[in-house]
Automatic annotation (TrEMBL):
Organism: Methylorubrum zatmanii
Name of the protein described by the UniProt record: Diacylglycerol kinase
InterPro entries to which the protein is assigned, alphabetical: DAGK, DAGK_sf
Chain segments annotated as transmembrane: 27-44, 90-111
Pfam families linked to this entry: DAGK_prokar
Molecular functions per Gene Ontology: kinase activity
């Protein structure tokens, strides 16, 4: 129980740090805050609502991982280097793909609803 609590504290520190320092994370947190009531209002059944919320959480989680990779790169190798650029581009591509997934799910749910 204590280990679980300590793990949660680490995650909470990460959430707060990310929200304080990263504009992209703040933007996606705002999208989640808007998406939560929108998903509930949109209806379409329980699984549609879950898919809408999961897509936003997935996107936010990927943004945190992308930020972690960027920070690690900048800390370990502050100078510019082609391989650091590739690593950051790969992490960015991962985050981008989750944004495409979220857009697909939201557009499909909206088309289906209206
Ligand atoms: N040290 C570096 N060496 C080489 N290229 C770099 C370096 N730092 C950044 N880049 C290039 O600039 C891009 C943007 O990196 P940056 O660290 O500024 O992230 P960002 O602007 O927050 O991008 P995003 O959040 O869209 O992934 C990287 O994807 C990479 O192509």
């Amino acid at each position: 129980m204590t280990a679980l609590y300590l793990a949660f504290l680490n995650s909470w520190r990460g959430l707060v740090f990310g929200a304080r320092t990263e504009r992209a994370i703040r933007l996606e947190l705002a999208l989640l805050a808007l998406g939560l009531p929108a998903a509930l209002l949109l209806g379409g059944g329980l699984w549609v609502r879950v898919a809408l919320l999961v897509s936003l959480l997935l996107m936010l989680g990927a943004e945190f991982l992308n930020t972690a990779v960027e920070k690690l790169c900048d800390h370990l190798h502050p100078d510019r280097h082609a391989r650091i650029g590739i690593v950051k581009d790969l992490a960015s591509a991962g985050a981008f793909l989750t944004q495409v997934i979220a857009a697909l799910i939201w557009v499909t749910a909206l088309i289906d609803r209206f």
